[in-house]
């Protein structure tokens, strides 16, 4: 097959936009056509893979390589690094992808011919992405320079036009193409590609659909790993990113809310740490402190917790993101202990007739653990509040285990009677409960080190109340004598 046929195959792989609104389509004919296209896409990807493998030792023109990448990337799985070094795929199972098409697309992208290079990334940005994003220019960006503008480009109706003509939404999976470009750009190449890169990123980030905002946040997180802080400042894009990430925290009603909140908070922390300076000692600089304080106080406490009481997944997402924010604030976190500790301890305390949210309890424990580290000088006045919640949570877990044991005994008796001999796995909830118990024990150990008075005052009260119940909670290495 020739290069011409390779380019033709790539063009024929344009994904029908109807896949993005599949949940709203009821016409069986349209659904059947989409399913037929999906099966055909696998065959076309296989043909592309064979050609790419045949050309492995040769070379392909940069425009042909760009065509192949533009076609194959929307079918791929693109894991990105988490803070702990693990890899996470930021995208779910898109409806146009089958398991076979994803494997084939990944094989195509693993070819040395398609490795990221400045000329290939520029080809995709300039000749693939720019033409489809130019119809909806961002009202706060100069499209030729990638710099912030202080008046709406296009006049008073610029924002209306921005949302009106969104041709880029006719290209499902375009976010993966942008992410691939960002992941492959070297630090010293951002300057030359800035005007091509920032417009599509900001378009995703400022879209009104939570799904696209999430894609934009994922791409921003990746960009912040290598972009120069001076470039962000000089172009004014740091301020645009900060405002857009702040706006993302107001999206509380969509399926993407938990991931969007968590990633937007993490990206905001990274942006602040990158674009603000440190000061001597343990305190952050005034600019850094003000931005991080605004994120925690206005963004999370006042902006999310007040309105998300009936949205546990949203609250838990903030808990998962809080440790990095508290570590960045360091001793400055003391300012927020009054709202933080009651919120966290309330999460630990079981409520009558309401099943405990083990996942949220684990997240709250991790936040409390971080708070104990960064606010050591001010923990003493809060130790009783924290220990009260720890004790109540411990009792609730023991009660749940007792109920599970009784149920398990009944089940075991029934299984013996019917002579069932296969292995029974430990339920996930039971394993999570054990993790919560270990977390509570570690909090007690840390509290004993930070507040030695707890060893003489509060810990003995637990043993006086019920030694058998609380002996497993308190640190064994501490010699506690009940009063």
TrEMBL record:
SUPFAM superfamilies: ARM repeat (SSF48371). InterPro entries: ARM-type_fold, Tti2. GO terms for cellular component: cytosol; nucleus; TTT Hsp90 cochaperone complex. Belongs to the TTI2 family. This is Uncharacterized protein. It comes from Psilocybe cyanescens.
């Amino acid at each position: 097959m020739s290069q011409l046929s390779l380019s033709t195959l790539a063009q024929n792989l344009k994904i029908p936009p109807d896949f993005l609104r599949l949940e709203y389509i009821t016409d069986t004919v349209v659904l059947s056509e989409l399913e037929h296209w999906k099966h055909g896409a696998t065959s076309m990807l296989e043909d592309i893979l064979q050609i790419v493998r045949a050309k492995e030792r040769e070379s392909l023109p940069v425009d042909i390589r760009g065509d192949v990448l533009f076609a194959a990337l929307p079918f791929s799985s693109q894991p990105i690094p988490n803070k702990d070094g693990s890899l996470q795929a930021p995208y779910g199972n898109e409806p146009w992808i089958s398991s076979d098409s994803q494997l084939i697309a990944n094989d195509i992208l693993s070819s040395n011919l398609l490795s990221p290079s400045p000329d290939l990334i520029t080809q995709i940005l300039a000749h693939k992405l720019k033409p489809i994003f130019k119809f909806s220019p961002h009202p706060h960006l100069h499209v030729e320079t990638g710099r912030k503008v202080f008046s709406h480009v296009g006049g008073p109706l610029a924002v209306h036009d921005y949302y009106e003509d969104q041709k880029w939404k006719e290209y499902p999976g375009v976010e993966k193409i942008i992410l691939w470009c960002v992941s492959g750009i070297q630090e010293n190449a951002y300057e030359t590609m800035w005007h091509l890169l920032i417009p599509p990123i900001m378009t995703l980030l400022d879209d009104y659909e939570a799904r696209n905002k999430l894609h934009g946040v994922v791409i921003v997180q990746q960009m912040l790993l290598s972009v120069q802080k001076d470039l962000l400042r000089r172009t004014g894009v740091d301020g645009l990113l900060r405002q857009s990430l702040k706006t993302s925290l107001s999206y509380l009603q969509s399926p993407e809310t938990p991931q969007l909140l968590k990633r937007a908070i993490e990206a905001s922390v990274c942006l602040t740490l990158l674009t603000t300076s440190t000061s001597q000692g343990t305190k952050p600089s005034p600019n850094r402190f003000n931005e991080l304080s605004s994120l925690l106080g206005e963004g999370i406490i006042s902006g999310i917790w007040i309105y998300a009481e009936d949205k546990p997944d949203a609250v838990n997402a903030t808990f998962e993101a809080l440790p990095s924010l508290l570590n960045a604030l360091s001793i400055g976190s003391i300012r927020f202990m009054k709202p933080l500790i009651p919120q966290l301890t309330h999460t630990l305390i079981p409520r009558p007739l309401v099943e405990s949210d083990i996942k949220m309890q684990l997240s709250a424990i991790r936040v409390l653990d971080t708070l104990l580290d960064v606010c050591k000088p001010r923990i003493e006045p809060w130790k009783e509040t924290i220990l009260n919640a720890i004790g109540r949570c411990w009792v609730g877990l023991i009660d749940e285990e007792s109920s599970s044991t009784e149920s398990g005994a009944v089940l075991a008796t029934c299984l013996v009677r019917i002579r069932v001999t296969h292995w029974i796995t430990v339920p996930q909830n039971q394993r999570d409960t054990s993790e919560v118990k270990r977390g509570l024990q570690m909090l007690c150990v840390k509290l004993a080190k930070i507040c030695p008075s707890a060893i003489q005052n509060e810990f003995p009260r637990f043993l006086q109340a019920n030694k058998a119940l609380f002996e497993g909670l308190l640190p064994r290495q501490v010699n506690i004598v009940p009063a």
